[in-house]
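Thread: iron/sulfur cluster complex, take 2
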Amino acid sequence: MTDKAPVFETLGCRLNAYETEAMRKLSQQAGVSDTVVINTCAVTKEAVRQAKQKIRRLKREHPDRKLIVTGCAAQVKADDFAAMAEVDLVIGNHEKLDPASWARVAHGQNDRIQVSDIMARKAVNSPLIDGFGTRARAYVQVQNGCDHRCTFCIIPYGRGNSRSVPAATVVEQVRRLRDKGFNEIVLTGVDMTSWGADLDGAPRLGDLVMGILDGVPDLPRLRISSIDSIEADPALIEAICHRDRLMPHLHLSLQAGDNMILKRMKRRHAREDAIAFCETIRAARPEITFGADLIAGFPTETDEMFENSIRLVKECGLTWLHVFPYSSREGTPAARMPQLDKATIKARAARLREAGEGRVAQYLRAQIGKTAPLLMENPRMGRTPGFAPVFLDSDQPVGQIVTAQITGVEGNQLVGTT
Ligand code: SF4
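Output below.
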């Protein structure tokens, strides 16, 4: 690789991480050089602010390189980014995975803004990748976009409606990465449980998961990034409960624990559904760990309603919490609802994080004395199937699976020996 190869900076989600690897390949195939590409996120106001900050830093670090902005922030705020002096080109979420875009970049034939109407897209580009930088696990896109319109969420406006990657393409991608030596693959998307709805015969996510496990029998570990539990199909539940190579770790898009708030968010589940889902899975697979996205301080949320979110952490037995202080997104229905004051939002987010930390500490203590296979993420740290980080007392090969004895807890990590 020449030092003129494009430099990539990725913000945001696992889907962005996959797309960066795809752009890296497409740009190299097109012969793009002397370029910096930043793949942005728009999930919160803070994410957009960070993107602008990174752009200024990248331009200082690479003054002679062309700077391209892409990703969800570029898709929803193209003019804002095009107005920045540091920016040479703004490319949309569809265009970034289109080989023709990179051919234009390579030949300097660019309109400053190349962002099309993402809602008009009926299919998703899914270039096959052959690696994932220096990461121990690889992310594979199975779906993009979302048909739902949760009242707080900007994502559909950045990513369009739901589009599925055909099963054969996904299995071929997993096969290819397995052949490159990856021991763990993470399936990613925006609203993964809607996978297949736009494909012939409307297969479900569970069918795809079973297809991957059967189609790539030598893949030791398959992981699902995030799901909407209310939309989990029977085959998916079967795979989660009974297929050992599907990791016993699910990240749930729960968002809140109060039914009135869930209604005002336009979510499709009630708190009772979330609790029942976790109980069903845990009854069949006791070692399962759950993570969840939870928003603190959604408009109109009372103290009592918030207590229902706090209670949900215990009632679902959640371990890994991603807590989001509510951030109003211009153009979303929730932004027009009566907002809570910042101090209340901040305080509630702190309480939720505290509840999460308590759960993590409890979970980690319960692992002491157990033996676990770890996927090594760096020479001294690997993760269990339940996604717990374990620090070892000796160097181990990155990307390999090693068996460790868990001997203790240090801070919010486990320690162990091989
Ligand atoms: S399901 Fe809701 S929160 Fe998730 S991406 Fe779609 S609109 Fe956003």
